[in-house]
Amino acid sequence: MAKIVILGAGIAGNTAAMYARVHARKSDEVIVISPNSKWNWIPSNIWVGVGLMKPEDVTFEIAPIYKKMGIVFKQAKAISIHPEGNKNFTNPFVKIENIKSTNGISEENVEYDYLINATGPKLNFGATEGLGPDKNSYSVCTYLHAAEANKALQESIERMKKGERQKILIGTGHGNCTCQGAAFEYIFNVEYILNKHGVRDKADLTWISNEYELGDFGIGGMHIKRGGYITHSRVFAESLFAERGLDWITRAHVQKVDKKELFYETLEGEEKSTQFDFTMLIPPFAGVGLKAYGKMDEDITSKLFAPNSFMKVDADYTAKPFEEWKASDWPSTYQNPDYKNIFAVGIAFAPPHPISKPMKSPKGTPIFPTPPRTGMPSGVMGREVAKSVVDMIRNGTDKPTRKASMATMGAACIASSGAGIFDGKAVSMTMYPIIPDYEKYPSYGRDLNYTFGEIGLAGHWIKHILHYVFMYKAKGNPFWRMIPE
Q1: DSSP 41
Q2: 409 with 372: CB under 8 angstroms?
Q3: How distant is the alpha carbon of residue 269 from its chain centre?
Q4: Tens-digit pLDDT profile for residues 69-110
Q5: Which residues fall within 8 angstroms of residue 17, CB to CB, at 6 or more apart?
Q6: Where would I find the H helices in 104-247?
Q7: Which range has the worst mean pLDDT, 125-139, 324-338, 454-468?
Q8: Considering only CA atoms, which of 143, 217, 205 is closest in space to residue 177?
Q9: Beta strand pairing status for 203-208 and 166-172?
Q10: d(CA 121, CA 437)
C-alpha cells in the first residue's frame, strides 16, 4: 500500500486527488489536506463580487464528496514537510495543524510515500500598506472576499442613485502582482452592473495595474488573429476599455492604500496618487510559507523552496537575462529535483522566471506582472502529476511518466465582460503555447493558428455553461472524467 498525500483542495489539488483515486490501486490511500472545508470555483467569484451569484453558488462542502470517492480528507493547515523523516519517524511526513479537532490533538504528523503540493498561494496583502479587505481595499480572490466586495459596491451604487458621483478603482495592488485577468473581468462586470442599475453616468471607472501596457495579463501579451488580421492584445484591450469609457493607469506599483486615496510609483519613477470611493485590488501572491526539515530536524527550507516560498521543481532556475530565456526553462514533470517523491503543481511551483519582460523604475522598484499559473493549466498539471505518481508506484521507479509543460500546453480563457443571458458578453481567448517559444515561432512566440481572441454573447454563454460543468466535475459526479480540465 502507498500513501499519496495532497496539500490543497483547489483546482489543481482536487483534480490530482480525483485522478489519483481513480487510477491508484484500491489498497493505496489518497489523503487531501486543506484548511478550507469548501471547494470554490474561483473564476465565478467575479459574479459574486457584483451580486449576480451568491457564495453558495460557487462552493460546496468537500468532505462528503471525498467520502463518496474514497479519499481521506483532513481539514488542516500544513505547517512543515519532513522529506527524510526525523529521529522519531522513519518515513517522510507532513506536520499539520488540525482546524477541526475532535480528540483534542491540534497537531498531527501525516506520513506519505508521495507528496503533491497544491496549496495555492498566500494572498500577500501585507506587501502593500493598507491593502486588503481588513484594511482599505476589497478583493475577489475568495468567495468571502467577493461577497464583501459586492456589499460595498451595492452601497456605492445606492449613493449613485441618490445623485452622488463615485470614483471606482480596480486593478492590481502591487508592482509584482499576477492574475490581472480576474481584475479585468471585475471592472467589466462592474461597468455592466452600473448600466443595469442606470447609474453608469454617475461613476468614473479607472483601471490600475503593473502591466507595461493593457492586455499583457502576465503572459507578455500576445498577438492574435482577429477578423482576418493580426493584432496585439494591447490594441484589443484598449479598444474594449475605450468603447466602455474606462480610464487606465499602467506601469504602476501601488505603494499605499488609504481610506480614500491610493499612492503609486510609476515605471518612470514618479510618485502619484488617485482618489477613490470603492476599490478592488488583487494582492501579490507568495508561497504559503511551508517550512522543511531534514533528518536531524535541521532547517532545509531553502532546499525545497525558492525565496518566494514556492516549491522548486524540474525548472531551470539559472539566473540569466531576459534575452536568454527559453521555453525549455519551464518545468514539465513538476518533480522536486532533490526529493523524487515530491511534486508541486498550480501556483505552488516556483516558476523559473516571469513571462512578461521584467522592468524596474529608476528607484529600483520592480514593476511587472509575475506569471499566472491558475485555471486550466493548473488542472492539467494536477491530472498529469497524479497519473505520474500512480505509474511510479506501479512501476517501482522514481521517473515521472507524464509531462505537462506550460511551454507545450495551450490554454483557453473566457473573461466575462457582463453577465446577462441576452446582453452579456465575454472575451474568449486561446493561446498556444502559454509560454512564448521564439525558437519554434520566431515571429510572435506563439502559433497564430491556435491563438485568437473574440468578444461576444456566445462567449458569455460558454462561460456560464462552464461554471456548471466544472462544478459538476469537481463533485466527482458520473462521467466527470469526460470533461476536460
Answers
A1: -
A2: no
A3: 29
A4: 999 999 999 999 999 999 999 999 999 998 875 666 689 999
A5: 6, 9, 30, 32, 66, 71, 386
A6: 143-161, 180-196, 233-243
A7: 454-468
A8: 217
A9: parallel
A10: 27
* Bridge partner residues of 249 (DSSP): 208
Helix axes 11-23, 376-395, angle to 10 degrees: 30
User: What mean pLDDT do residues 127-147 have?
Assistant: 97
pTM of structure: 0.94
Location of C-alpha cell 506519505: 112
Whole-number Å distance between alpha carbons of 341 and 115: 6
Residues 473/480, Cβ–Cβ less than 8 Å? yes
Residue 341: which region, alpha, beta or left (left: phi > 0; alpha: psi -120 to 50)?
A: alpha
Residue 244 has pLDDT above 70, yes or no: yes
Q: What is the pLDDT of residues 200-239, one digit of tens each?
A: 999 999 999 999 999 999 999 999 877 778 899 999 899 9
Q: How many CB atoms lie within 10 A of CB 100?
A: 9
For 72, the enclosing helix (H) or strand (E) is strand 72-82
Quick one: how far is CA 315 from the chain centroid?
Answer: 19
- In three-state secondary structure terms, 13 is helix
CA–CA separation, 369 and 210 (whole Å): 6
pLDDT of residue 103: 61
Give the span between the Cα atoms of 231 and 214, in whole angstroms.
13
Q: Which amino acid is at 308?
A: N
Give every CB contact of residue 414 below 8 A, 6+ residues apart in sequence.
426, 427, 428, 429, 459, 462, 463, 466
Contacting residues for 53 by C-beta, under 8 A, at least 6 apart = 44, 47
Residue 314 one-letter amino acid:
D
C-alpha cell at 231: 493584432
